[in-house]
Amino acid sequence: MAEKSGADILVETLLDLDVDTVFGYPGGAVLPIYDALYEHPKINHILVRHEQAATHAAEGYARSTGKPGVVLVTSGPGATNAVTGITDALMDSIPMVVITGQVATNLIGTDAFQEADTVGITRHCTKHNYLVKKPSDLAPVVNEAFHIATHGRPGPVVIDIPKNVQVAAAEFNRHAAKPNNRYQPRTEGDFKAVNEAAEMIMSAKAPIFYTGGGIINSGPKASETLRELAKITGSPVTSTLMGLGAFPSDSEQWLGMLGMHGTFEANMAMNKADLVICLGARFDDRITGRIDAFSPNSKKIHVDIDRSSINKTIRVDRPIVGDVGRIMEQIIAVLKGRRFSAPGYEEWWARIKGWRATNCLEYPENKEEIMPQEAIAKLWEATHALEPIITTEVGQHQMWAAQHFGFDKPNKWLTSGGLGTMGYGLPAAIGAQLGNPDALVIDIAGEASIQMNIQELGTASQYRLPVKIFILNNEYMGMVRQWQELTYESRYSSSYSESLPDFVKLGESYGWTGIRIEKPSDLEAGVKQMIESDGPVIVDCRVAKLANCFPMIPSGAAHTEMLLTPKDVKGTMDDQAKALV
Amino acid sequence: MHIHDEAVERHVLAVTVDNEAGILAKITGLFTARGYNIDSLTVADISEDHAISRITIVTNGPPHVIDQIEAQLDRLVPVHNVVDLTEAGPHVQRELALVKVAGKGENRIEAMRLADVYRARVVDASTESFVFEITGSPEKIETFVTLMREIGLVEVGRTGVVGISRGPEAA
Fold it and tell me: Which parts of chain A register pLDDT below 70?
């Protein structure tokens, strides 16, 4: 059998795994791999401007297509720059394979040029990682890495490849390269547990479905199954930030997002429910509020593919480990077998309607300035028929987008939930556009976050990607300022966005169309112009500077203690609350 | 504001893993990253082809943390299985220690007498010192070392606990 170089083995294995897009940045320790890519034009290499952006672009690609994102970076700074995006993918369970160059094996440990202990640094921000020491290991390692990244709870896998391993030759037998299948997570739910869960659903008087990113990760079919399960039971549905789109926002059963910036009705229903059915979510602190006051009178069912998510922060009565899509099917089968029909829950819905009547997402009218919520609502009105993919940065604009942009389908909402990474949205939009060339992709941004990966304007220009950036510019790190108002008597320590660039001119210098929207009366026309422009567009939408994001569960408070309007803000907090994030 | 601590339990975990580079760092790093405690940790390969290692970890924490530790260990790709011996039922725990004691006259005789009672073996001797090898439960070793401290303890090395379940079955 013919021998091939490690770099060729790597690239051919990627092709065997149907990889068509790689996000990367070259450097000394990956030159052999880049040379192999030169010979394999079937792989579309996207040259980013910073390695962090390569990882977020891969995440955007993965979340919008369901396929794993692939990243290629060099050793040392290439790898360390990628760490933020790798950690982001771990926190949000995004399938990703990151290939890093490494100095030659004989130089490892000598503090060689651009050497970093990549395997050591990424040990706890990856699902698994490898240092490949000989070229004959490459094919099995790469195959196993893709298997691990995409099975069970998805996550990032790093493969660190020393330069001499890329150059050295080995026999390549693609058929012998299959992984040894040591990683086989459970997908089917335990039969007894599923039955018990179905019993609990049948006897509940005030049930609620609390759904999360697991449903999106399980694949589009799981969203269909959730809709069927909701129809059969007739019970209310709420979701985490990560799970938006799995259930249609225009459904009568939809309560909106829950948690810190969730709706009043969703949080009150969680608090008063007698049964919480958690599907592919993990009782994150942004969801639960104060733990000892979280849904105090309910029985809890928790469906999760990761056993370590169960009983981590909230004790549950009936855990079921496995794939949430499959387990919902199993539950539906039991409910149908028992001829369960939706009991209507009249009393329960009457209470929910009472909570809904607070109209918690209302915001004050403003004739002079654009209210940021209004901007999101207008954006939704103008674009929802086009089924856009929305990415965000992190902060107030992200929460306003989650609250005021209605999502009806999975894989259309890409946001950094667990890690909360500012600078996520633009590269994620680039990745999503590459995976969905015909889609309208909009990064809803803040003027502070967008600057964290603003260099990627160049990447979109280079590959003719018509992504749109919609900046809600209030000249503040708004969420930081909001917390300073809530907790530190409005002492605005370093939260003003000083020395902002002219975003319109900045965009134009990269060949983008730049639009500025300053008045409420210009909003509709500005949004229309953005959508109708063929190429990439950056919109600098000037919004009311001091608007805050409500409703809100303040730090250390319970679901029942939401702040509904700025009038509820006291301006100080005790140390116990201050110490919580 | 004050930070409150919860009551803890001691548990012995037997973890079977692929014998691959970095696995020990993965496990110890998991403990530090998530704030878990390690009282002792032993590791050696146990299979004919040297492909599998067994790690015995003695840890302590509140019951819900112990449960998390097991779940977190179990989801590492190279980990085959995790057995909580403390939870699983009757089991044997053994530890080995080498204990160096120096002294003359009456202390020397007393050291030998106590070593005899504790079934410690002399593995090295000079005119003014002994090295004892002792195996047993951690408590027995603890007691022996405490006694030797009074007599002239110079140095002690302990392996940490290895454990195995009682009866014919693997745990």
Answer: 1, 176-180, 581
Give chain B's contact residues with A (Cβ, < 8 Å).
1, 18, 21-22, 25-26, 29-30, 33, 64, 67-68, 71-72, 74-78, 80
Query: How far apart, in whole angstroms, are the C-alpha atoms of residue A81 and residue A66?
Result: 25
Tell me if A294 sits within 8 A of A281, measured CB to CB. Answer: no
Residue B132 CA, distance from chain mean position: 18
A-chain residues near B21 (CB < 8 A) = 131
Q: What local confidence, expressed as pLDDT, does residue B24 receive?
A: 95
- E-strand spans in chain B? 9-18, 40-45, 52-61, 79-84, 91-102, 121-126, 129-136, 153-158, 162-165
- From CA A281, how far away is CA A287, in angstroms rounded? 10
Q: What percent of chain A has pLDDT over 70?
A: 99
Does the CA dihedral B99-B104-B110-B116 come out positive or negative?
Answer: positive
Q: Are A287 and A208 in contact (CB under 8 A)?
A: no
CA end-to-end span of chain B: 44
Report long-range pairs for B43-48 (Cβ below 8 Å, ≥24 apart).
Answer: B45/B19, B47/B19
Q: Which helix (H) or strand (E) holds B29?
A: helix B23-33
Give the global pTM.
0.95
B68, A306: Cβ pair inside 8 Å?
no
ipTM of the shown complex: 0.90
Helix axes A396-404, A478-487, angle to 10 degrees: 100
- Number of Cβ atoms within 10 Å of the Cβ of B59: 23
